[in-house]
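re: that chain from earlier
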Amino acid sequence: MNRQKFKAHPWHGVTIGDNAPEVVTCFIEIVPTDTVKYEVDKETGYLSIDRPQKYSNIIPALYGFIPQTYSADRVAEITNIQLNRTDIEGDNDPVDICVLTEKDITHGDIIVKARPIGGFRLLDHNKADDKLIAVLENDAIYGSFGDICDVPVMVIDRLKHYFTTYKDLPGDKSPRCILTDIYDVKTAHEVIRRSIEDYDNEYRNEK
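^ sequence. v structure.
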């Protein structure tokens, strides 16, 4: 069978790139104009509707994940160490990433190259759910940023608001997602390296 006839699975069939963690391939699921939250179906690799965006909380960047990464023991270990805990686990998903760009990109289901510059350490029901922050490679405005401290405060505040509220529902007594801290490019690279190890342990080593 000619494998070129078939679309590669965006999580397992697309490579992270030869220059990771400095430059990574990202699969973009949603963009700022989306009023529906799309998410890759893990079995088929096609975009599916996760849920409509019921409120005015819109992602202020391209949002997706890094292929061939996985958040499990090695990723969770960083959070446990930083928070002096032992009970946090990975969320068993590929590592999420936001990509900043000055360009208007009108739809997801695309692949981009980006440079991670930092990240949010996020807990979702006590599971490690890191959100890496990156810039589109060679972007005219954001492309020169080397660390998350280079990003304007207003942009960081918008991202913080989105990720600490986007899963909340009316009647919730406490927020589902808690931002514990913001980390730099060095830690972002370490999260990526560990997520590759988690992916290898979960998928490649079983073959």
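Residues 24-204 form a domain with the Inorganic Pyrophosphatase fold (CATH 3.90.80.10).
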